Q: What sequence folds into this?
């Protein structure tokens, strides 16, 4: 029986879609050079637009993928080449890709306040465990799948600066009318402890794929 090929970012995109245009939109709006992506699994899309990305995951398939010599770099380079043929897309040269096979809830070998973008997509309590790595005035990209976006919305040291929408692989940022987002459907006052305990976000009257918050200090 033939052995099933090891998963790659290319095969992972078949199931989740390509988020490359999301990170192009972010870097078009803000000068992000360094990002930290805890719970990344095989999602290499940040490296299509951001020069220096540190990926963290304790899944053995992710560890195998990132340890394969030249594979992540070649997939990122191929995707960047595709982007340069798209209208308004941004490209970067020679991305730096670092991977830590680790549980992000434990201390990471990452300097404090060293990253300009902290990414939390379907990964659990990234903000609670990795906020110390975010630089002053840095950005948090979070969705509400595991509650991170809803926790961030209640964090006094964060302000909402964009809502993320998408159609297929095309992502766009909404930078205006942000006061209409993050309004709970139930009308009840959201509670951070309840969100953490349940591990899921709050249903809002106006939904988005994710939200971008900026640290106020």
A:
């Amino acid at each position: 029986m033939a052995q099933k090929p090891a998963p790659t970012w290319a095969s992972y995109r078949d199931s989740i879609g390509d988020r490359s245009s999301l990170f192009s939109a972010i870097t078009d709006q803000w000068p992000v050079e360094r990002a930290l992506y805890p719970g990344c699994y095989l999602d290499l899309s940040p490296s299509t637009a951001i020069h220096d990305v540190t990926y963290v995951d304790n899944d053995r398939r992710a560890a195998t993928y990132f340890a394969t010599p030249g594979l992540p770099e070649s997939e990122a380079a191929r995707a960047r080449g595709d982007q340069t043929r798209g209208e308004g897309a941004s490209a970067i040269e020679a991305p730096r890709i670092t991977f830590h096979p680790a549980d992000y809830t434990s201390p990471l070998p990452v300097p404090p306040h060293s990253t300009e973008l902290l990414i939390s997509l379907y990964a659990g309590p990234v903000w609670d465990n990795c906020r110390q790595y975010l630089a002053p005035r840095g950005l948090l990209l979070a969705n509400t799948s595991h509650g991170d976006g809803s926790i961030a919305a209640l964090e006094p040291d964060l302000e909402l600066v964009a809502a993320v929408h998408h159609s297929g692989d095309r992502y766009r940022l909404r930078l205006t009318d942000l006061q209409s987002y993050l309004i709970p459907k139930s009308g009840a006052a959201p509670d951070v402890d309840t969100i953490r305990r349940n591990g899921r976000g709050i249903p809002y009257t106006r939904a988005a794929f994710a939200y971008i918050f900026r640290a106020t200090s």
Observations:
- The two ends are 57 Å apart (CA to CA).
- Residues 71-83 form the longest helix (13 residues).
- The CA atoms of residues 25 and 87 lie 12 Å apart.
